[in-house]
Write a structure and sequence with these properties.
With 168 residues, the protein is of the alpha+beta class. It is built from six helices and five strands; from the N terminus they run βββββαααααα. The protein has a five-stranded antiparallel β-sheet.
Length: 168
């Protein structure tokens, strides 16, 4: 069972710290909930204790695993195929997996696409969400501020030859 102070990732929302466990009544039934405080947007999410495993709640990656995320960010982007709607759903499925490397790949690919030709508003929201999820987990994994992590990401993506080549 998770404890107060544990740092976890909630797929499609990002990483946060369990700040408490509260009982809440919903639909006439009282249940215990984890209170998850997210570092970005100062958002609070409540997750039923009995549903935490089912929704994919997991521990934040270790500092050692950050290298795998960096490798994904530095690797060659995948070429976008199909309509924006098809790409959107494929990217959304990858993000729902909860795997930080999948989220990093989605962010990298959408950033490249946007620099080559502007992405749709739906893909823009997905890119913003991917960046938020990525930054929130890296804040805990690297013990850095959101601003420091954002700077690190920008430096990696700006130095990515594939992205620079697409711009020029």
């Amino acid at each position: 069972m998770l404890q107060i102070g544990d740092k976890v990732v909630y797929p499609m929302h990002g990483a946060g710290e369990i700040s408490g466990i509260e009982d809440c009544e919903a639909f006439g039934e009282t249940k215990a909930y984890y209170v998850l405080k997210l570092p970005i947007g100062n958002m609070k999410v409540m997750i039923p204790l009995d549903n935490a495993d089912h929704i994919g709640l997991r521990d934040v990656i270790s500092e050692d695993e950050v290298a795998a995320v960096e490798k994904v960010l530095r690797s060659e982007p995948e070429r976008a195929a199909g309509s924006w709607n098809k790409r959107f759903h494929a990217n959304l499925s990858r993000m729902k997996s909860g795997d930080i490397c999948d989220v990093a790949a989605v962010a990298r690919n959408l950033i490249l696409q946007d620099r080559q030709r502007k992405i749709s508003s739906g893909e823009r929201r997905l890119l913003d969400l991917a960046r938020q999820i990525l930054v929130s987990e890296l804040v805990y994994a690297c013990e850095q501020t959101p601003e420091e992590v954002e700077g690190w990401l920008e430096a990696i993506l700006a130095g990515n030859g594939f992205i620079r080549a697409a711009e020029g």
